[in-house]
Every structure is written in structure tokens, then in C-alpha cells.
Amino acid sequence: MFIAGRYGTSPSAGSDVVHIQSSWLQHFGVPLEISEYKPSSSPDVAEALYAADVPIVLCNPTTTPLPSILPISLDPPLPVSRKHTILAVSVPSPTHTSTTAQASHIKSLAMQDDLKVIFVDPARALHGLEQLGYGPASPVSVQRYQDDVTGSNIAGVTHAVKEILSIAIGDGKNLPQSSQVVAVHIQTGRALIKNALLTCRTALRHAELEADAVLAGTSSLRGQMEEAKAKVHLEVFGSPDKDGDEIAKAVAQARQSVKLTMDALQWYKLFWRVDDIREVVTAAVDRAWCRDLERKLVFHAGRLAALQSSFKDSASALCRSFPSSSPYHSPVLHNSLERIITAPSYPVTAAALTAPLHARQSQLGFPTERLHVSAQRAVLTMSASMLGGCGVAWSGWVNELGLFGGLIDVGMNTETALGVGLLGAAVGVRGAVGRWEKAKKRWWKDWDRVGEGLERDLKVTLTRTMDEHVVLVPEAACAGLEGIASKRKAEVQQLKDEVRSLEGQIEK
Questions:
Q1: Over the range 306-340, which residues count as b (16 or more CB within 10 Å of their CB) and which as e?
Q2: Is residue 417 part of a domain?
Q3: Do 38 and 145 reside in the same domain of the chain?
């Protein structure tokens, strides 16, 4: 502050106020004091502007761009009340064409804050006063004075001040001046309260925008996660064309390889390979069981590990993008994410995808063991049938020759006994061969069941790996931030209701 003026004749010694006998100060009907302040961010200046009944902000667009202070409600650089503030824009000529074109833009911004915008030319007003200071007044100097004062539009400021004060006084023009001053102060107080509530509303709006920005960030990250989940099955297992996806192709290829071994296990070879059935079939399964698919799964496990690291970095960057003063800066959430990252089960390993291959392969152990037992039974049945048939035929031959003194008598002649023996042996062998073929078909049914289960297990395992490993950290980060944002928006809504209630009380 470097000057303050008030109407009066008393000396101003020992006071910061200059008493001036100016009729202009008596145009308003109430005692008036004018204080001028330099541009400053000092709290004293801010307090004086807040306490002013009619703040007048003089702005030179050449040195201070108007967008830096308008609209005020977005980021108030000046602590002024809205409705009773006068924005005096210093321009070379308030009536110039360029000024008129600029006025529409400035007033459209000022209307958002109920500001009164007046275009003035202070230099021209001073020039007009100087015309009366050059000796005795002449008609020419008086005319120049009137032209300059009128052209400077200083009268517009006077009219605006009168209008604001008259609105404050209202119907109390006949009241004592002290009562009129109280009415003006009441208007100022109400304006300050409205300004404070507007500031609260602006702060709440900023909080809403901040919450929306957080939710937009989590939504973007969730979109990336959903896109990765949607693409991963196609990338790992391929598209299910007419031959099926990679799993079906791998199982079919393994079946063809094992089928060569199974077809080689003919019934007549069982006599010298019966003890090797389990080992032969197990070795064939080991050689053929989805080896190419296993190598592909190991490769994709490495890709998922890289994707997991990328998602982890994105989630950490999102959580740490908020300053320590932000309500979305949560050390608890940071610790939770670090605990997940450092857990031994967090990294994606090759076994995470290949485990179902080995688990399903091991399930073929029981069918293979049962096939081995069936082979042993077939060999025993065939051996018993052939021995029994040979025994009957031999008995007939012995009886025909009269050997053993007729002790062995089957009641049949030699030809009949031979036929019965051979028929019994053939029937026994045929039955054993049929049971062996059924055992192999039953083993293939178990193979098909294991293959179908393998496809289901691999897809479920891939989904679980994505959920429990790859996107676990970003999912936890999004859930934590969304919880904070939801709570924050609920608090903002509650405060907005309170501000709305206070605004309603002020308007009564």
C-alpha cells in the first residue's frame, strides 16, 4: 500500500490516510476510502482485497495477459470476491474498434464470475487533468479535459461503484450513514461467504477431476490387462481351425506315434514280451507325449514373464505418480504391492504352464498297468487253452494206443478227441485275443479322456497364470486406487451437499 485517500479537511499527520476535499468522494452517499496497492503476493494485500467492499483490479493486457487471471474460478490468482469486483482493463482507447472486438471475448470470460469489466484509459484521463493545470482554464483546455475524461471512460468506474453501493443500500437510502455503511459491509460479508463457498466448490471440483483422472488411469490399465487376457489364448494355443488348436494337434500327433507301438503288440508276441508291456508302452508315451507343445509352452512362459514385468512396472508407475501430499499416495498400497512382488510364488516359471502335461501323462500310468495285467491274463488264458486242447487230443491218442493200461479214457476216439482238443484250444486263444484287443481299446479310451482333460487343464492353467501371476500386481493396484477414489468421491459428494446447503442458507 502506498496511498489511501478519504474525504475530509482534518490534517493527515500521524495517519496513513490522506484527507482530500474532493467532491468525487461525495458522489456515493456513504463515506468512502480508497486504497491503492502495488501488485504483490503479500498476505497484507490479499487481506486488504478481501476486506474491500468494492475491489477494483486494474489490468494492462500488454504486461499481464488476461487469460492468466480469467476465468478466476479455475485457479484464482487474485483473492477477490466475484460479484462486487470491478475489472478495469487498461487500453489505449475504450471506443477503438480493436478494443470493441476484444471486449466480447473478455466479457464472456468475466461473465462466468459475475465480474464487471470496464475498459479505461488512465493515461488519457491524466492527460485531461494536466490540461487544467497549465495556467488559467480556457475554453480549449476545458474542452480537451472533457474529451479526455469522457474518452478515458473513468466515469464508467464511478457508475459501477455507485451501482454496487446502491444495490447494497437498497431501500435504506433514508437511513443514517452508519446504517448504510453496515448494509455495505453486510453485502461484502455475504459476497466473501459466497466466494469462500465457491472456492470450496472449485476445490471439490478439482478433487472430482483428480478422482476421475485416477479412475481413467486404472481403466486404461485394466483395458490393457483385458486385452492381454483376450489375446494370450490365441497366441499360446492358436486358433481352433478344422484340425483343432495346438493342444488337439499335439495330442493327435502323440496318438499316431504311440499307435505304432500299440499296433506292434500283437497277441502272438505277448508270449515273449508279456513282462515288457508296461515298460514298452510307458517309453512310447514318454517319447511321444506332446514334446513340441511342451517346448512351445516353455517359450510362452518366458513371454508371460516379460509381460508380467511390464504390467508390474506400469502399476508401480501409476501408484508412484501421485505426490506425497495426494490422497492417492498410499504407503499401505505400496507395501501390499511389494509384498506380492517379493512372494516366492509370484514369478512365472516354465512349470506354471507345463505342469498339466506331466500331471496328465502320469494319469496314463494306471491304464498302462491295467493293460500289462490284461496281457499277462491273455498269455495265461492262451497257454491254458492250448495246453488243455493238447491234453484232450493226447488223451484220445493214448486211449487209441492202449497205453497206460486204459487208465486214461476220455470216451472219445482219437479223431474226436483231437478235434475237441483243437477246438478248445482255438476257442480259448480266440477269447484271450478278444480280451486283449478290448484291453487295448479301453487303454485308448483312457488316452482320449486324458487328452480331453489335458486341453481343459492347459486352458484353465493359462487363465489362472494370467490372473494369479501376470496381472496380479496391476489388479491389486487398480483395486486399491479404485477403492481410494470411490471413498474420495463419496466424501466429495457429502461435502458438495453441505456446500449446497450453505449456499441455500446464504440466498435466503
A1: ebbeebbebbbebbeebeeeeebebeebeebbeeb
A2: no
A3: yes
